[in-house]
Amino acid sequence: MKKLTVIIMSSVLLAACSQQPTTGDFQYEVDRFADVQILRYKVNNFENLTLNQKLLVYYLSQAAIEGRDILYDQNHKHNLTIRKMLEAVYVNYKGDRNSKDFEAMTTYLKQVWMGNGIHHHYSEDKFTPLYSEAFLKEAVLSVDSALLPLANGEDVNSFMARVFPVIFDPALYPKRTNQEDGVDLILTSANNFYEGVTQAEVEAFYKQMAHPGDPRPVSYGLNSKVVKIDGKVQELKWKVGGMYSDEIIRIVGWLHKAVEVAENDIQKKVIGSLIDYYETGDLATYDKYSILWLQDVNSQVDFVNGFTETYTDPLGMKATWESIVNFKDVEATKRTTLISDNAQWFEDNSPTDKQFKKEEVRGVTAKVITAAMLGGDCYPATPIGINLPNSNWIRAEHGSKSVTIENITEAYSKASAGSGFMEEFMWSETEIERAKSYGSLTDNLHTDLHECLGHGSGKLLPGVSPDALKAYGSPIEEARADLFGLYYMADPKMVELGLLPDKDAYKAQYYSYLMNGLMTQLTRIQPGKNIEQAHMRNRQLIASWVYEKGKSEKVVELRKKEGKTYVVVNNYEKLRGLFGDLLREIQRIKSTGDLETAKQLVETYAVKVNQDIHKEVLDRYAKLNIAPYRGFVNPVYTLVKDNSGVVTDVTVSYDENYVEQHLRYSGM
Ligand code: ZN
What we know:
By secondary structure, the chain is an alpha+beta fold. The chain has 25 helices and 15 strands. 47% of the residues lie in helices and 14% in strands.
């Protein structure tokens, strides 16, 4: 199971509960289109970094932007062509820019930027163009053909014949990543990790590559595309001299500059080993880099840069390129340090069976960070927490680094202030008041517990493969981490450690979690569709399971008031007990690799949607006029030089809008 990492999107919606009245003079909202709101985030205390730290952020940020086109291509093979064509039309079209068609095409282009391609970043479905094919044809023909991304020797007509069906034919490439049970997941997924091979061929290919019983396996397949050449299945590596060579060479160029201003020797080694990996594509070098990266705990500036998360590959092997540049929020990190200092206590006292516990929890480092730049698969949509590396043996032997990205959460919650969301969906004033007082606090704490402890807890029994749960591994792993957090949120230890102010605060999180899992997260699902995304599956799994199991005692109810359905929690203590029961069972499933039960749990509780509630939630939500998805624009960093050209400072500014930023990145 590799998808240990994290995108706890719950807080995207839950953030609506942590309302804060003032936004100051910082404009959080930048743009709005389709189902998306674009925000900016504030890089608090950037000005307090030293000049070298600022330069380090600057160079790593440049590296973070350079991988953007890699991700477009990974997501789907026609993405870059379509983006470049639409950008050329957007910039150069001389016709009526206020026409419905032009506006619809602009929205579509904004969606492409948000999804890093023609599929929705979350639902995985292909975007539906609301402009006509005739309009696009006229628009493309009106643009100088030298500005279009024509293939070698191709004329504009054959270009359009090749590209237009990808946009306009709904039957072509309908889904980026298909998770549906019982079909060939590779042939039915539109992403670009495999070409000309079947799922069976890929599975056979990696089976012969793996060494059963190897205690320290590399992450097979992580940085390559699988193709068939002359009838032979093989990998094309993403590295200098391989696929994406131009982009990777530019990334490496910035990394070399970063080494020169690194904070200490260990950080220099970290960046140096990443350069080695990009130059060789060697996965053992990647593991070496990951271990060094874990050891770098003293630097204030830190980063993720590389082929990291495997969510987009239905087989969970191929990683999309991503980057986050960040620096430690020293004050807030005291909270996560307290949690990791007590990691062993939490492991020992969890409700899981003793044989599945770690005797020694090690290396749970945790910190709160301020994001300074988002790139690749962390942009425009971004996680609020990260827990890396994903390699199971490295996590077991060296631990993991866990971060909470507080300035992103801050932007979410500030932008949500006054949306009316809580008033619409919460049962009574009690829940609303609790959410206002404790929502933000318990949300952050749940993220910390999920990241610092949840993913790192427990162990596999000897001989159990980390991939034993196959496609069900991801929601089960997320459920495990969430449940660990939920269970402990209500523990007296929280108040004892000073992490929560009183014994009732956790109820804010319990209520929001159930409301989200049973109802409000359905705002992200199209009518009639099932739930596919791992984190959403996990949340519905937990919420529906405790709802069902507590039904006879009415622990949690769905109650009607004036024709509207509400979640009502009648017994918070029993609810905690149910979270504990499910955690115990899910840890057993994970530790023993019980695929059958994992499948049954996920298929019973996590996938299917209650159609009546779904419709009701969508109707009520629509009236609130809140965008269900959010993305970000990055700040702009500028080098300040003196008369002799020496850099004296780096400044940060926030005046670039969504369109300007993407056109600038595309022109790089
Ligand atoms: Zn997670």
